[in-house]
Amino acid sequence: MPPRRREIFGWCCFDFANSAFTTIIITVVGAPYFMAAIAEGDPRGPGWWGTALAASQAAVIVLSPLLGALADVRAAKKRFLMISALVCGTATLALYFAGPGDVMLALGLVIVANLAFSLGENFCASFLPEISRSDNVGRISSYGWAFGYLGGLLSLVLALVIIKSGEGRVAWTLVMTGVFFLVGSLPTLLLRERARPRSLAPGETWVGLGWRQLVRMRQELPQHRSLGIFFLALTLYLAGLAAVVAFAGAYAMTELGMTQSEVIALFAVLQLAGIAGAYGFGVLQDRIGAKPALGWSLVLWIIVCGWAALCTTKREFYVIGVLAGAAMGSLQSSGRAVVALLSPAGRSGEFFGYWGFFGKLAAVIGQMVFGWVASAGGYRLAIACNAGFFVAGLLIVLCLRIDRHRDDAHPIAA
User: Fold this and answer.
1) What is Dmax (Cα atoms) for the chain?
2) Alpha carbon of residue 217 to chain centroid
């Protein structure tokens, strides 16, 4: 049955809702608040934060193939998607209770919340092949990211209002973020579950199914050569992106002396640029193909990292933020659309489980490396090194040939 517009709207609303979490908790407020108020300025703070995020992504690496296959077999993608929203929103609300010195409590809640958030990303993305066609997959993917940036922008405005309302109100932004996620994701219930559940074979277990899924991934990806090589590129460039998301706010406050309000204003500008980047590159991808759109996105990120490492003024960093916003929206939208194009029909949950697997592996690498390089040598060295992830990803993408239509695509490495 063809998707209805309300389904596309409901799908986009999940991006709208979960962007509040990644914008407020992971990037703008959560990281600086943890390092200053909870870790109380301990120089190991960046390393702790990066390690906690990496640990949550490591758990996703283990769970993604199992849950992706389970969702397909049980026809439960929608159910799992809504459970992930409930867990993430609740854990985010609970961060309010982590006070000065409660490092382990805060990190534990961040791990749980980010785990649920990341699994939800996978389930949400797995609906994309069902609500799109090969000629509009880039555009519909971009709608989701554009909605996401609108959600991020609104959450930033609410956070700024809360912080400006009085002293000591930063913790209340954590409560707002949890509620925002829970309420904003309700329209996602409009999605339909098109798959039909099937039973396990005699003697088959869910653990065994998950293990076979990992073995199957190792066996099958060489048969989908371009997709396998693309996943390598994706792992590298998403490692760089994950590090930027996790530490951009802390970088701005530590290296440039920006206040919390200034950082929020900066990221509001970034969200607007992200909307334009996600939509613009989505349309561009449908016209010129996935590879050129993705390539230009990576070039933008290389420029952003190099410039940020040398940046000395707040005004300069605002310009970098505009470029980063456009590059972030385009990179995420293009990558998700490429996977939708190359995934075999009827196995979207499984292959977006692979997408989640490699995306979370990237976060383990990028966030931990950035965090400990920043702890040892400072944020500028870390962000300069981070550009290497985007360079490596670009070099691999340039060696790929990606057909534009999944209906007749037989992608091969160039």
Assistant:
1) 65
2) 22
Mean pLDDT of successive 10-residue stretches along the chain, which has 414 residues: 77 91 89 87 84 88 77 80 95 93 93 93 81 72 78 90 87 95 92 70 64 67 73 91 84 86 83 72 70 85 92 89 79 73 66 74 87 86 93 90 48 34
Tell me the C-alpha distance between 394 and 268, whole Å: 28
If you write DSSP's letter for every residue of 264-306 in order, what string do you get? HHHHHHHHHHHHHHHHHHHHHHHHH-HHHHHHHHHHHHHHHHH
Which helix or strand (DSSP H or E) is residue 13 part of? helix 5-20
Short-list 101, 110, 105, 121, CA closest to 55: 110
Is pTM, for the whole model, over 0.85?
Answer: no
Q: Considering the domain 5-188+209-398 in this protein, what is its CATH number? A: 1.20.1250.20
Q: Give me 147's structure tokens.
A: 């909605």
Query: How many other C-beta atoms lie within 10 A of the C-beta of residue 198?
Result: 10
Q: Which helix (H) or strand (E) holds 338?
A: helix 314-342
What residue segments make up the domains of the chain, in order of their start? 5-188+209-398
Alpha-helical segments (H) within 134-205: 137-164, 170-184
Structure tokens at 62: 């283990």
Contact 285, 293 (CB under 8 A): yes
Nearest Cα to Cα of residue 71 among 340, 356, 342: 356
What's the rounded Cα separation, in Å, for the pair 303 and 323?
Answer: 9
